[in-house]
Amino acid sequence: MAPVTDTMDETTGGVARGGKAAGGASHADLLRRALATMPGGVSSPVRAFGAVEGDPPFVARGQGARVWDSDGREYVDLVGSWGPLILGHAHPAVLDAVRGALGDGLTFGATCAAEVELAERILARFPFADKVRFTSSGTEATMGAVRLARGATGRSRIVKFEGCYHGHHDALLVKGGSGLATFGTPSSAGVPAEFTALTEVLPLDDEEAATRLFEEKGDEIALVAIEPMPANAGLLVQRQAFLQHLRDLCTEHGALLLFDEVISGFRVAPGGMTERTGITPDLVAVGKIVGGGMPVGAFLGPADLMDRLAPLGPVYHAGTLSGNPIAMAAGRATLDVLEQPGTYERLELLGARLQSGWERALADAGVAGSVARVGSVLWMCLQDGPTPRAFHLVREEGAALYGKLHGAVLEAGAWMAPSAYEVAFVSTAHDEALVDRAVDAFAAGLAAVTSGAGAP
Ligand SMILES: Cc1ncc(COP(=O)(O)O)c(C=O)c1O
Predict the structure, then answer these.
(1) What is the pTM of this model?
(2) Of 69, 71, 75, 165, which residue is the catalytic one?
């Protein structure tokens, strides 16, 4: 494991210098208790390190672009809580906003000013939309969007793409990415075939397949849901022409287009892929960054569509903690900090630095692979040939190598996602030195694995 550093300050950290978390539980003890009390020891499957070698550390603390585990070991963080932490851990402006809101109470079950302010900020970044509905997760956001689309069009059929992940609700949990790709279980038990009989799955990057489906069933399709930057089965960068083709098909056949921007929203541009591509969807789902590290999701669109939601319209959608004041304050502060000039240029530079560092490390080690990147989102693709744009072109041998490599990189001090199918994120809290440390750790991990030393 990476050496224990003395960068933790006893006055601020939860970790005693030189060892165990405050409270004294050892890693082995925590792991035993976690496994005894929670399925797989986790609250979300990929965290269990099931697809990589070694046991998952317990994170005790994050600061900026670094995390410390419960034994006091420090890592450069390339996971960023799976996307929300575009400003890094514990950003002062976000913490101040949360502290400021805390004193007024944790939840009201009524609309609050911070909610209105966050709504205004979101809509300013997605000008095609007039109204937004808050949820407590990305899953709920896409779930609400599906129901709204079905309610608005009076149609039942929906379309998704192989390898795209839209959360864990039934309608879209078919041939998904994220944990489904990681564990090779493309669809979940417990989702009746009858429920997903109305979900059509298409390959990414294939205009013809989409055209054929619309020719057959176009007048039954309520919604086409896509991650415009698919980032849950690797980073499968789509061609503009393909996304435009989907827009055109939807328009022609009266179907709605949902851009699931739970990862890409506020990440690859203030207005996400909607802004970057200039393609106007009918609905956008956001999550992750919009809550600044607190549980928030949202879906948004034009007023004539959104006003079909209850209480104005017949499409029901609700949530006890939706619009939670603390979460709204964290999201508002995050979007405000992102407004600072130069933010996205800086993320671009840091992302490019990580990309070229990884590419160099792969070349130096003689390991076949490439690095896909959009801004501060990167994917290490461990296979030869062009970086794939469709899930069926992602080969399993990459996952096998990554499974060995991951532990060795962690050992060398960089925290990468414990799955070959998940992306890496750079934040504004990273700097050149931390990116270089992450690259060095990757190179050290590669050396360990290719020399046969392997992961611990
Ligand atoms: C593109 C996309 N949509 C939806 C979701 C679901 O969001 P949540 O995990 O907040 O429910 C995710 C989660 O990773 C995601 O990446």
Answers:
(1) 0.93
(2) 165
